[in-house]
Amino acid sequence: MDAAELLPLLAVLLAAGLAAGTIAGLLGVGGGIVLVPVLDAVLPHVGVPANWSLHVAVATSLASIVPTSIASSRAHHARGAVDWSLARAWAPGMILGALLGSQLAARAPAAILSGVFGAVALLAAAKMFLPLDELRLADRTPRGMVGNAIAAVIASVSAVMGIGGGTLSVPAMTLTGSRVHDAVGTAALFGFLIALPGTLGYLLPATPAEFPTGTAGFVSLPALLVVTPCTLLTAPLGARIAHGLSKRRLSQLFGVFLGIVATRMLWRTALFH
To answer: Closest Cα to residue 25, out of 225, 181, 151, 130?
Structure first.
């Protein structure tokens, strides 16, 4: 591929990284909800086989979330919007679930990955967009065995989707008594607990022979090096924007965004059939 062909792809990745960082800070989603669809579209143009592009996109997205989630959660912590007690209580389930999810995803057909991604994002979109702010399943977010079971499910599905967990953990926390701003801030920290073990899980399998140079396991190192500085640059900006929005407006924004992404991934799933 010559420079004339590479430059547009590079521009798309840079723009996606900047957008992912902003959304990571704004919504506590880690940025993967943006990066996975973009990487899935770009990677086949740089040598990744089309039937493996979603796997590599998911793995690379998780790897980028490790530093991005640190930057985002620091910004939210500075505004007192991280529930450290809940983070400690859910940490074991998050870590184990992420390891399990990454191992499952590395072996799953692409149609299953995109279908899971789209369906979960669509359900979460409905919860956040509709006027259900007062809907509660519990007055306090569960801890202990129940809490860790919830965390493990969130982390395993998130690792399959290549996201930081906010897509699921924000609705889960707001349904059990958390303010949306606190849920977003805590979800940013959960992104780290999911992304680090999840990335390790994607690095463990042997790199398929048909993958381009620069791929480690299922992680595209060149793509990672392009998007990560961009996400780190804009994650604190997203956090500042989030704390300037009302509770309802932040929930609506989260829901609209998830709905758009869910539609795209479900459409991709339909193409496999």
So the answer is: 181
